[in-house]
Design goal:
By secondary structure, the chain is mainly alpha-helical. The protein has helices at about 5-35, 35-65, 85-110, 115-145, 150-160. About 30% of the residues are buried.
Length: about 160
């Protein structure tokens, strides 16, 4: 079983992961409304990843003999001024999630909960990837600015995400 403090934090993390999914679903919808179908697709894939992350926490809690307590999620945003603003928001959100994962690892270490540490190691590595991918897109969008042809090209490229 998880310590009461770690169990509460893991349940909180399910909420954060589902809020991430909801944020990316909102970005998907916004990109579609702006006719950036490739960027919308990228966010659709990201939405599914975040739901999977929540599911991993969900399953781990039950595997440890504890109970999941789902919480209400917040609507983080619905609109952005530009693709760059949306991806900046995604990058900042990934930094927030990284901080939460790091906090969980700190708690697991303090609790000497080696199973939780092993479980969280995957998320530590995953967050490096999540931050890297969103930051690269932010950097590309900053470089291209408002150049229409370049936006079309990056939109097509992001639509290839599997």
């Amino acid at each position: 079983m998880l310590s009461p403090k770690l169990l509460t934090a893991f349940n909180d993390q399910i909420k954060h992961e589902l809020e991430s999914a909801y944020l990316y679903a909102a970005m998907n919808a916004w990109f579609k409304s702006e006719n950036f179908d490739g960027m919308a697709h990228w966010m659709e894939v990201q939405t599914k990843e975040e739901i999977n992350h929540a599911r991993k926490f969900f399953d781990h809690i039950f595997e440890r003999g504890d109970v999941v307590e789902l919480q209400p999620i917040n609507i983080l945003a619905k609109k952005w001024a530009s693709p760059l603003d949306a991806f900046k928001a995604a990058y900042e959100h990934e930094q927030f999630v990284t901080g939460k994962i790091n906090d969980l690892m700190t708690m697991a270490i303090a609790d000497k909960d080696y199973a939780a540490q092993e479980f969280l190691n995957w998320f530590v590595a995953e967050q490096v990837e999540e931050e890297d991918s969103t930051l690269k897109i932010v950097q590309l969008l900053k470089r291209i600015g408002d150049h229409g042809q370049a936006l079309v090209m990056i939109d097509r490229e992001l639509g290839k995400r599997e």
